[in-house]
């Protein structure tokens, strides 16, 4: 029981027997540099650059500085984000109470070693495999096995790392640590087996990038063959055209934009004391339309106090004193570590009772605790549970207290019992002694937070283990819409009843941990994206199955470790900032992805047209670089920083593709027609190339304007600056970007097709709106919002 000495622990740590944790997601600086430099597309760019050097087309290398800058920006931003997040992780690492040199002390779980003796109590996640030495605890292994049952562990029993302690207190010795511990073995298996835990947006962008990577090689080879082998052009003239087509098809900045934006977003949230355990949660939060919250710790502060303790029957002063002493003995015998017991200890005091024969710690499943003394069995818990057989006699009194916003518990004696009931109190008569009223102050910013959710179309459901009348009253004070519609979850005895209640009710009281999870499942089955907030072990099951889980760090350690998002200062008013950050990221990436795909789809179609028509590809690499810089790169960078609170709906890839197609096809039709008409009227290839560059830029600015509507001063400055920048570079650095004066014939053709771009895009947009409506009608989903591109 004295544990290890500091000298023994240091030797074990040096021998590699420390509790080093295995992370599924953390990257080293070396990995970040490798992932940003040794990429498939960077290899393609190097090959293309070598071909241009061999062919002597030096001015076509203008894309290289952009690629190099993108790589360095990606590395710097991700490393900076890593440092901020690592610092936050260390500062908020889980700690354990461990015996060292015969004395208990708090240490980070990663500093534990094999053989350490630790103390475990309610709300703690077991840091490594262990064996119980003394005491008794109830553990839940749902995060490991999926089974929600609470398992009692006594001396000699094994404890699995990753499980969490529901109640009780024990001392245990660590038997397996680090990579040998059960939870880390699971993590290593998960890393070894390819599991697709990416978000929808990341999967979609990965798919686009992979498809482009597959297509560019055969098209590049065909373009070279067509130009040299069929058209008879020289190697020197064929290479720049092929490189221009291939560069146009590569979404070189899209994946960079995604990784950098997510990393920066995580860093921004970290500076607001919000820690993400999972990058996927950013997108999940952006899509959330239902937030399930607990009352205590979310709507109210964690600090709990006893407002009053009312004897159920008339008592004189001596009887009140004896009853209070009994409660004090009860609290001292139970050794529960939760907010309710701590508040009652502050009020009644705590007397370490040596005559306690048997104890049952509080469980959120049973909603009461019990102690057996020589004079009988006493219980403390929810009145509806403890007084179940005769609750109707006390219901009006309890509801009266609850309607004032108090949480009510009853302390009483189980009659005619010489042992704690094994199967609940359903068949027991309980003589109530005290009704104890507890209260938590409502959080200062709760009303503003819930007002924000209402304005954003996010529904709030309050799910609590407390009396539904109490929860409803607190929810009303916090300004939650529909708070008057409440239900006692004890009456929800079937999946159909839960499903119906989820549709019509806002407040759920007397909910068990299993029912919390069932409510989340019912909401998901109805098509909602659900976020679950919580601070205790009773919330973990529902948090685990929700689309996004948010924990208050002031609650149980197990809840924080199980959640995707942890509010380290336990301030629920950060939630609007988190949701806004998620929406900003996804909306802006979706907008930028549309710009990238316009270029990629257009380049692919024009390459196929060039191969089939045996014509020369009309654009050069430097011209593609010029247009990409001002149509895509610069605006995507600036627009990605803008706030955007539009709620995310629909599938990412469908929205992006259907928005990009009208502009991409307009680009293709206009430039393909320009090439055909130019050859028909004897316009030179160089003139057509310049005209095609400006046509491409015009369509690019039209789609940029459309996806930026409604315009605000910031967006107007970005678009105007990009137009001005393109014109200035085209004039001052015309030779670098292959821009020259063109013939009158070419100018007339250019004006004609420039005028035709707007009606062409309008017709194509209406066509794709029709396609979208037909798909929506067939699949039953909502149509994609086209209000910004028509």
TrEMBL record:
One GO cellular component term noted in the UniProt record for this chain: membrane
Cell location: Membrane
Domain of life: Bacteria
Membrane topology: Multi-pass membrane protein
Keywords: Membrane, Translocase, Transmembrane, Transmembrane helix
GO MF, one annotated term: ATP binding
All residue ranges annotated as the P-type ATPase A domain in the record: 94-187
Protein's UniProt keywords contain Transmembrane helix: yes
Major localization listed first in the record, in broad terms: membrane
Name of protein: HAD-IC family P-type ATPase
């Amino acid at each position: 029981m004295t544990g290890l000495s500091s000298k023994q622990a240091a030797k074990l740590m040096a021998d590699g027997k420390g509790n080093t944790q295995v992370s599924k997601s953390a990257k080293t600086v070396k990995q970040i540099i490798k992932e940003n430099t040794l990429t498939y597309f960077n290899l393609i760019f190097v090959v293309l650059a070598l071909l241009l050097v061999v062919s002597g087309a030096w001015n076509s290398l203008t894309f290289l500085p952009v690629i190099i800058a993108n790589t360095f920006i990606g590395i710097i931003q991700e490393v900076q984000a890593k440092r901020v997040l690592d610092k936050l992780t260390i500062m908020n690492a889980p700690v354990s109470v461990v015996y060292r040199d015969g004395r208990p002390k708090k240490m980070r779980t990663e500093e534990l070693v094999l053989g350490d003796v630790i103390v475990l109590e309610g709300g703690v996640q077991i840091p490594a495999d262990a064996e119980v030495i003394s005491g008794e605890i109830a553990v839940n292994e749902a995060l490991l096995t999926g089974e929600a049952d609470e398992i009692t562990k006594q001396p000699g029993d094994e404890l699995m790392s990753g499980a969490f302690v529901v109640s009780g207190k024990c001392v245990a010795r660590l038997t397996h640590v680090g990579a040998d511990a059960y939870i880390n073995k699971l993590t290593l298996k998960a890393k070894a087996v390819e599991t697709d835990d990416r978000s929808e947006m990341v999967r979609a962008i990965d798919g686009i990038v992979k498809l482009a990577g597959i297509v560019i090689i055969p098209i590049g080879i065909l373009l070279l063959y067509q130009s040299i082998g069929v058209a008879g052009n020289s190697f020197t003239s064929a290479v720049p055209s092929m490189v221009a087509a291939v560069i146009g098809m590569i979404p070189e900045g899209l994946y960079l934009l995604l990784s950098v934006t997510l990393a920066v977003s995580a860093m921004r949230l970290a500076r607001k004391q919000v820690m993400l355990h999972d990058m996927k949660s950013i997108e999940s939060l952006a899509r959330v339309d239902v937030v399930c919250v607990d009352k205590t710790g979310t709507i109210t502060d964690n600090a709990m106090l006893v407002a009053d303790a009312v004897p159920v029957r008339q008592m004189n002063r001596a009887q009140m004193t004896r009853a209070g002493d009994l409660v004090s003995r009860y609290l001292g015998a139970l050794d529960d570590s939760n907010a309710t017991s701590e508040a009652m200890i502050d009020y009644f005091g705590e007397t370490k009772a040596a005559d306690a024969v048997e104890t049952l710690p509080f469980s959120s499943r049973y909603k009461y605790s019990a102690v057996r003394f020589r004079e009988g069995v006493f219980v403390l818990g929810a009145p509806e549970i403890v007084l179940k057989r005769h609750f109707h006699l006390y219901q009006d009194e309890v509801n009266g207290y609850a309607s004032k916003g108090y949480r009510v518990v009853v302390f009483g004696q189980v009659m005619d019992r010489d042992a704690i009931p094994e199967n609940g109190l359903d068949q027991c008569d309980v003589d109530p002694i005290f009704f104890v009223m507890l209260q938590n102050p409502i959080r200062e910013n709760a009303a503003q937070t819930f007002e924000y959710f209402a304005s954003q179309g996010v529904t709030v459901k309050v799910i609590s283990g407390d009396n539904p009348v109490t929860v409803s009253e607190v929810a009303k004070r916090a300004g939650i819409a529909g708070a008057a519609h409440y239900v006692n979850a004890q009456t929800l005895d079937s999946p159909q009843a839960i499903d119906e209640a989820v549709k019509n009710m806002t407040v759920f009281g007397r909910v068990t941990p299993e029912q919390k999870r069932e409510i989340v499942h019912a909401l998901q089955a109805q098509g909602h994206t659900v976020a679950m907030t919580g601070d205790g072990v009773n919330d973990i099951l529902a948090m685990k199955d929700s689309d996004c889980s948010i924990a208050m760090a002031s609650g149980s350690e197990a809840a924080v470790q199980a959640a995707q998002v942890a509010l380290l200062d336990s301030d629920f008013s950060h939630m609007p900032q988190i949701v806004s950050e998620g929406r900003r990221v996804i909306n802006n990436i979706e907008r930028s992805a549309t710009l990238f795909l316009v270029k990629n789809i257009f380049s692919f179609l024009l390459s196929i047209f060039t191969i089939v028509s045996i014509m020369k590809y009309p654009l050069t690499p430097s011209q593609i670089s010029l247009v990409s810089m001002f149509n895509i790169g610069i605006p995507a960078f600036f627009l990605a920083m803008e706030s955007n609170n539009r709620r995310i709906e629909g599938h990412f890839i469908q929205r992006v593709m259907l928005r990009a197609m009208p502009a991409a096809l307009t680009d293709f039709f206009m430039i393909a027609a320009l090439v055909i008409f130019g050859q028909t009227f004897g316009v030179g290839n160089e003139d057509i190339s310049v005209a095609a560059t400006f046509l491409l830029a015009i369509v690019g600015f039209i789609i940029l304007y459309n996806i930026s509507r409604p315009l605000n001063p910031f967006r107007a400055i970005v678009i105007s600056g990009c137009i001005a920048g393109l014109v200035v570079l085209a004039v001052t650095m015309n030779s670098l970007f292959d821009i020259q004066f063109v013939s009158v014939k070419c100018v007339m053709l250019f004006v004609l097709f420039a005028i035709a771009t707007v009606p062409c895009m309008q017709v194509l947009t209406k066509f794709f709106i029709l396609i979208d409506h037909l798909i929506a009608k067939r699949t039953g989903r909502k149509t994609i919002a086209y209000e910004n591109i028509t």
